Amino acid sequence: MKTVLKLKNISVNFGSHQIIKNISFDLHSGEILTLLGPNGAGKSTLAKIILGLIIPNQGKVIYQTKLRVGYVPQKLSIDTTIPLIVKRFMTLKSKIKIKNVIQVLIRVDAEHLLEQKMQKLSGGETQRILLARALLNKPQLLVLDEPTQGIDINGQLTLYNLIDNIRTELNCAIFIISHDLDLVMAKTDKVIYINKQICCSGKPKDIALDPKFIAMFGYNWTKQVCIYQHNHCKYKYNLNNNKSINSYYND
Ligand SMILES: Nc1ncnc2c1ncn2[C@@H]1O[C@H](COP(=O)(O)OP(=O)(O)OP(=O)(O)O)[C@@H](O)[C@H]1O
Ligand SMILES: [Mg+2]
């Protein structure tokens, strides 16, 4: 597996506050890494460091050469006074062909929303549009900051399956921040729990047995993780569209 991203001893201060302390990890192609942690732990800050939006005070981020990155932000602020339809939102960056927009919308099962106003979308629809936008450049690294927020349980399962399928189709690395511990764990290769610094990390089945992890989440929850790990097949949902995304990028 190719190393897509390497974080080495990253530390970040905002003023006198230390937000991130000495975080290191690697991410490889085809791998899903889930970042967990309480509110204010520094998760979104770490995502922005990976995206180059925040420069760390210490440490280094090393990228695969010419890395293409897709990003689904935690928050999307749209001025409600400006009418913005999905088609326009998707083509805000120059040189995006409408044909490609339609193709990624089909992949996330949202092509019917093309002419819909962004402000009118439901939570789940908004997340699909953001995911579609992140797929436009055929990313080798997909950074998803709480992509299932505000989505009901069925919608969460469908979205996680979609993300998992996209990982397989593109063989991209996925860095996902989540609070939906039980759902996300079944799809994850590696978990990192942070609270400014890494508290524990490892494969889901190993981390669920880590006394530090159990102390943080409680025994009942960690027991559930083990069950999801063994039974995750029962959550395989069929998507309406089984066409591989790769076919969309072949002009
Ligand atoms: N630009 C900034 N300037 C100053 N402090 C900031 C800035 N951005 C974030 N912080 C602070 O850094 C800390 C970590 O914020 P961050 O958004 O990374 O947390 P998080 O783990 O993503 O939390 P949540 O689960 O609520 O999304 C918080 O205390 C936040 O107030
Ligand atoms: Mg956050």
Keywords:
251 residues; alpha/beta; Rossmann fold; six-stranded mixed sheet; three-stranded antiparallel sheet; 35% helix; binds adenosine-5'-triphosphate; binds magnesium ion
Sum this structure up briefly.
By secondary structure, this protein is α/β, with parallel strands linked by helices. The protein has one domain: P-loop containing nucleotide triphosphate hydrolases (Rossmann fold, 3-Layer(aba) Sandwich), CATH 3.40.50.
Textual characterization of the structure:
With 251 residues, the protein is α/β, with parallel strands linked by helices. The protein has one domain: P-loop containing nucleotide triphosphate hydrolases (Rossmann fold, 3-Layer(aba) Sandwich), CATH 3.40.50. The chain has ten helices and nine strands. A six-stranded mixed β-sheet has the order 5-6-7-3-8-9, with helices on both faces. A three-stranded antiparallel β-sheet has the order 2-1-4, covered by helices on one side. Adenosine-5'-triphosphate binds at residues 14, 19, 37, 39-45, 74.
Topology:
Layout: E1 3-14, E2 17-28, E3 32-36, H1 43-50, E4 58-63, E5 69-72, H2 86-90, H3 98-107, H4 123-135, E6 141-145, H5 153-170, E7 173-177, H6 181-185, E8 190-195, E9 197-202, H7 204-207, H8 211-217, H9 219-231, H10 246-249
Parallel strand pairs: 3-7, 3-8, 5-6, 6-7
Antiparallel strand pairs: 1-2, 1-4, 8-9
Helix pairs in contact: 3-4, 8-9
